[in-house]
Amino acid sequence: MRVTNSEGAASDRYERADESRDAMSARFPTIDSVVDNLREVGYYANRRLATAVFLALKLNRPLLLEGEPGVGKTELAKALAKMLQRSLTRLQCYDGLEQREAVYEWNYAAQLLHIRAAEAAGKGGGSEATLYDSRYLLRRPLLQALQAPTPGTVLLIDEVDRADEPFEAFLLEYLGEYQVTIPELGTIKAEVPPITILTGNRTRELSDAVKRRCLYQWLDFPDAQRELSIILQLVPETSEVLGERIASFARHLREARGTTDFHRVPGVAETVEWARALNALGIVELDPDIVVDTAGVLFKDPDDINGLTRQRVEGFLQASGAFAR
Ligand SMILES: Nc1ncnc2c1ncn2[C@@H]1O[C@H](COP(=O)(O)OP(=O)(O)O)[C@@H](O)[C@H]1O
Ligand SMILES: [Mg+2]
């Protein structure tokens, strides 16, 4: 474990960070190479997102992705880990998330045993230094990521907007310097900075301080062509014609949201699931009845399901037919 502030260790660390950055630049020399390599691991990125990824790798900066549910934020972190052949370390955020679940906590039971053993041996309760030994440290995702062996890990801090503001403030040290400070142990800094992806659904505005430390990218739903590629990849039994209809139908649903009362429009996960369902039902072409009957795959809200009337579906089908090649 590297817990230090000494100059020699620090320069050694920066050299390693430089090395890993240089290796990264050699492997992914252009934005196109990022697009291609992501596609090879099953992720379809547009150029804007690939540019953000390229810069995050090159500049060694955390990347904050915001967008609606189901646009591929979490999936990007998984794909990056595959692309870089690194492990994925995931910190799922939620209301009430505390540092001890995110970073570390002390193994009190083991510390207690240590005290008892020391007492039994007639050595008193053991000194504080031995009690707060790294043996008794339970490492949670952030610390695991900082201490991951070469080649390092991809750290996904998922749905960071669900955590509360104090936790967000706590993240600043990590995001700015890839380090955390543990009162009993000192500062723990990454030897190889984790490739860090934060995601958020904008349930609340993140602080400027977090945004300033990250590169930022807003993710939209994929265009119909990219969504078709995703569907065909994940549900290969789908015919190209049906896949096209699904993708353009979904696109029209999403575009119509401004003029309808849908609470939440389907994400990519839902369209993929819909393709699976339609195949399971032996459907080769969309018609209003089948869309109405399977609305529960696309929507998860009773009002939205009821709102997808036969008449509305006909309108969407007609409009989306015009989009099919
Ligand atoms: N660009 C993409 N390339 C490949 N698969 C995608 C893409 N976008 C979304 N998906 C698929 O959609 C699903 C939902 O995406 P996810 O990353 O969970 O959404 P988010 O985290 O934005 O809510 C994923 O499991 C993945 O199968
Ligand atoms: Mg997600």
Automatic annotation (TrEMBL):
CDD domains from the UniProt entry: AAA
Which Pfam families does the record associate with it? AAA_5
Signal peptide start-end:
none
AAA+ ATPase domain location is 59-220
- Please indicate which superkingdom the organism of origin belongs to: Bacteria
Q: Which InterPro entries match?
A: AAA+_ATPase, ATPase_dyneun-rel_AAA, CbbQ/NirQ/NorQ/GpvN, P-loop_NTPase
Q: Extract the GO molecular function terms from the UniProt entry.
A: ATP binding; ATP hydrolysis activity
Q: What is this protein called?
A: MoxR-like ATPase
- Native organism taxonomy: Bacteria, Pseudomonadati, Pseudomonadota, Betaproteobacteria, Burkholderiales
